[in-house]
């Protein structure tokens, strides 16, 4: 698909990149039946192909409308379309560029700007967000409706390994996960400790940058990336062998640090190194000798419904890693359907596009629970919290299950 850039964008590097990305699209329509929002609305402007045309129109006409903004906002960035695209169209990168351009080309009403700014500033600051979550947990019984349901119960984290091993990996603690599901990384630390590996959380590292970047605030997102690189770099120089993420949504952005900071002469080389060292927790474990884990007998009737987040199967292109680990550990996996479709969480999407998000969640829970599982396991904090609001069975991170099955 050819793009004739408007004169206003002739010297705009992002606009040129967007035009190059669009050139890969052959408008075949294979993406339509894999797009959750198109399946939900039936409006082609809510499909990848439709949104590509809208961004193309922006690049060629030099102006945007609220209609373009609305349909870009409705995109989950699940990237299911990328998995099915025969021409390798990198739709997620185009959507991010389009959203960034829209923030300047079609300014939002003040209430929308305020809400999005509050979400970015609160979610991306772990200390602030943790404080807000703790206050919410304290007053949760008095908070009605949807807001009260979004406040996660406080978790018990268990003991922290005390032994320091020669092998060390860094962990992205993140922002939402550190506050809402701290049991995840504590379980990961115990499992890795049993394999002779220490999990190191580095002070100063925090939000991966996804909240800001995916909401079109690219400069702020890049600041978070640079801060993390600065925080991790001394440990990397001292021999840390990997940067591990236990939230696949964060991990999918870590994998792109090198690309997103390629034009920054101060950070480009280190960012590329971070991306090369990054690995998802499940992928990292599959590289280890898992026979060292003494797995207790797992009750066969307690079936696990495995939810594979979009970020894991479409962005990281690792749809089977978690399934393989749980199978090796002896868990019985429930039959599920429509595994490729998004649960509707998608970071801040569940807040900004609540109606669509709730419809997608209901469909996903039906698809996960048809085989009567005892628990739903997932690999991403946002999905875990979103599904946990409405599911009638517990929703846990899969590493918690592995920790329980291999612990003393």
Automatic annotation (TrEMBL):
UniProt-listed Pfam families: CCG, Fer4_8
Record note on cofactor: Binds 2 [4Fe-4S] clusters.
Designated name of the protein: Glycolate oxidase iron-sulfur subunit
PROSITE patterns given in the database record: 4FE4S_FER_1, 4FE4S_FER_2
Reactions catalysed: glycolate + A = glyoxylate + AH2; (R)-lactate + A = pyruvate + AH2
Ranges for domain 4Fe-4S ferredoxin-type: 15-44, 66-88
Enzyme Commission code(s) on record: 1.1.99.14
Function, as annotated: Component of a complex that catalyzes the oxidation of glycolate to glyoxylate.
UniProt GO MF annotations: 4 iron, 4 sulfur cluster binding; glycolate dehydrogenase activity; metal ion binding
Keyword Iron: yes
Sorted UniProt keywords: 4Fe-4S, Electron transport, Iron, Iron-sulfur, Metal-binding, Repeat, Transport
Enzyme class (EC, first level): oxidoreductase
Cofactor section: [4Fe-4S] cluster
InterPro entries, sorted: 4Fe4S_Fe-S-bd, 4Fe4S_Fe_S_CS, Cys_rich_dom, Glc_ox_4Fe-4S, Helical_ferredxn
């Amino acid at each position: 698909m050819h793009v004739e850039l408007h004169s206003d964008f002739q010297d705009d590097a992002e606009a040129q990149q967007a035009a190059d990305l669009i050139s890969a699209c052959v408008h075949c329509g294979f993406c339509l039946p894999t797009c959750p929002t198109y399946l939900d609305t039936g409006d082609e402007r809510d499909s990848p192909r439709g949104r590509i045309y809208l961004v193309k129109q922006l690049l060629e006409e030099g102006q945007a409308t609220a209609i373009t903004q609305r349909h870009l906002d409705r995109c989950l960035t699940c990237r299911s379309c990328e998995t099915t695209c025969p021409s390798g169209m990198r739709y997620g990168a185009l959507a991010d560029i389009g959203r960034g351009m829209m923030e300047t080309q079609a300014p939002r009403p003040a209430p929308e700007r305020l809400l999005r700014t509050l979400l970015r500033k609160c979610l991306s600051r772990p200390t602030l967000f943790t404080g807000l979550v703790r206050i919410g947990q304290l007053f949760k019984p008095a908070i009605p409706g949807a807001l009260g349901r979004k406040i996660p119960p406080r978790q018990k984290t268990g003991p922290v390994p005390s032994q320091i091993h020669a092998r060390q990996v860094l962990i992205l603690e993140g922002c939402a996960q550190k506050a809402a599901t701290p049991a995840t990384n504590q379980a990961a630390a115990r499992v890795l400790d049993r394999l002779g590996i220490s999990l190191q959380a580095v002070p100063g590292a925090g939000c991966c940058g996804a909240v800001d970047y995916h909401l079109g605030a690219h400069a702020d997102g890049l600041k978070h990336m640079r801060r993390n690189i600065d925080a991790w770099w001394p440990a990397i120089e001292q021999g840390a062998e990997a940067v591990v993420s236990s939230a696949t949504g964060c991990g999918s952005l870590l994998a792109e640090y090198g690309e997103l900071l390629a034009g920054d002469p101060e950070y480009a080389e280190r960012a590329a190194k971070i991306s090369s060292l990054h690995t998802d927790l499940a992928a990292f474990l599959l590289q280890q000798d898992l026979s060292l884990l003494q797995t207790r007998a797992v009750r066969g009737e307690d079936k696990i419904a495995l939810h594979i987040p979009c970020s894991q199967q479409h962005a990281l292109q690792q749809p089977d890693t978690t399934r393989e680990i749980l199978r090796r550990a002896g868990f019985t996996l429930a039959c599920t359907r429509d595994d490729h479709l998004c649960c509707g969480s998608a970071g801040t999407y569940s807040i900004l596009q609540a109606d669509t998000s709730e419809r997608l969640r209901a469909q996903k829970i039906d698809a996960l629970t048809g085989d009567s599982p005892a628990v739903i396991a997932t690999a991403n904090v946002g999905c875990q919290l979103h599904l946990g609001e409405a599911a009638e069975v517990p929703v846990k991170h899969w590493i918690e299950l592995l920790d329980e099955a291999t612990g003393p």
